[in-house]
Design brief:
Layout lengths: L1 H4 L4 H12 L5 H20 L2 E6 L4 H4 L5 E3 L1 H10 L4 E5 L2 H10 L4 E3 L15 H10 L5 E4 L4 H4 L4 E3 L4 H8 L3 E5 L2 H11 L2 E3 L1 H4 L8 E4 L12 H10 L4 E4 L5 H6 L2 E2 L2 H10 L4 E5 L3 H9 L4 E3 L14 H10 L8 H17 L1
Parallel strand pairs: 1-2, 1-3, 3-4, 5-6, 5-7, 7-9, 8-9, 10-11, 10-12, 12-13
Helix pairs in contact: 2-3, 3-16, 5-6, 6-17, 9-10
Length: 348
């Protein structure tokens, strides 16, 4: 990836992208994207910008302009430590907000007007306050896939990579885990806690070793089913199935491996298996395939995240050229949200 960023011409950028992506992008489209990528990398140096790319970015973007790629936890650490004048976050809004929370003196840019998230929109700060009032003193663990005002009401954030580790460290009989129902249920299974849904939680029915969860879901991960896994295994018995922890618990249990996006990238690279089914946003299958040409990724490519797909090379160029779509946060909310993120980073 570094060699593409250092390319001295559009032609060289195109050649290097072609070597990496092979036939994933049509020839004419790839040359047009190479022109944009070359210009982004040129302006990035002029403006002392750093570009962070989430694992769900389209392959032509992911493999051409980010200085760092990874999952929410890894990119949060990088955002917190960045000394660049500008942080361009190729991900969705809550990720760019997280960068601004952790590094408020840097300009943070999101290359889209909205780039929201169904999961982040499933809960409000008032919802969290109501739960806290019902269960005073019970620790609130909030998934990083939330907006700043929700993070501000929580005790500690988590990601799919560290959620189990954080809940285990809290040593609390009762934990409030928000807002992803499926992630919380998967964590509850691994930590031995009984799941309490919102209707029961507000009735005060949480007892010992309980996890109070919310009913938020990712509109991508909730679509995967056990039938998908069974269908693939009938056709390709040697397939290794990997599921993101945001998938329904029965899907995670039927899979061979479950982990964060970065954990799944590492798993494929280290595995001797040759064929994989990745149950998450399917752009990530292309990105893994590009880095592991000797392995085959079976993609359920009708399952796309419309919010991640708002981030394009074209809009990233406009964003960087014009300093467009800057992230701004209320300072009181930012400070409160930072406490929950700082605690997460300390405990990870």
């Amino acid at each position: 990836m570094t060699s593409i960023q250092q390319a001295g011409s559009v032609q060289e950028t195109y050649r290097l992208m072609k070597e990496r992506l092979r036939d994933m992008v049509p020839e004419a489209e790839l040359y047009a994207k190479a022109e944009i990528a070359f210009e982004i990398n040129r302006i990035k140096k002029e403006k002392n910008a750093v570009i962070l790319g989430h694992n769900y970015m389209e392959a032509a973007l992911y493999h051409s302009i980010p200085d760092y790629v990874g999952d929410s936890l890894g990119l949060s650490r990088i955002a917190a430590e960045s000394q660049a004048d500008r942080i361009v976050f190729c991900g969705v809004r809550f990720m760019a907000e997280t960068a601004k929370i952790l590094n408020p003196n840097r300009m943070v840019l999101l290359p889209a007007r909205v780039a929201g998230c169904s999961l982040a929109s499933s809960i409000t700060a008032d919802d969290v306050r109501r739960l806290k009032a019902k269960y005073p003193g019970v620790p609130v663990v909030t998934y990083i896939n939330t907006y700043a005002d929700v993070k501000a009401e929580t005790d500690i954030c988590c990601t799919s990579a560290n959620a189990v580790h954080i809940v285990n460290q809290l040593n609390s009989d009762v934990v409030i885990c928000l807002p992803d129902e499926f992630l919380a249920k998967n964590v509850a299974r691994e930590t031995g806690k009984k799941v309490i849904m919102p209707s029961d939680a507000f009735s005060g029915n949480a007892g010992k070793d309980s996890m109070i969860v919310w009913d938020g879901k990712c509109e991508v991960h909730e679509q995967f089913t056990v039938a998908d896994i069974e269908s693939v295994r009938r056709q390709f018995p040697d397939t290794v199935v990997m599921a993101h922890p945001e998938c329904p618990p029965e899907v995670v249990e039927a899979s061979d491996y479950s982990g964060s996006t970065t954990a799944m990238v590492d798993f494929v690279s280290a595995s001797k298996a040759k064929r994989f089914l990745l149950l998450t946003e399917c752009s990530m299958s292309d990105n893994i395939q590009a880095e592991n040409p000797d392995k085959e990724m079976l993609g359920l490519c009708s399952v796309r995240c419309p919010h991640m797909n708002e981030i394009t090379l074209e809009d990233t160029l406009i964003c960087l050229r014009e300093d467009k779509y800057q992230i701004e946060l209320d300072e009181e909310i930012r400070i409160k949200a930072k406490r929950s993120l700082d605690r997460m980073l300390e405990m990870s």
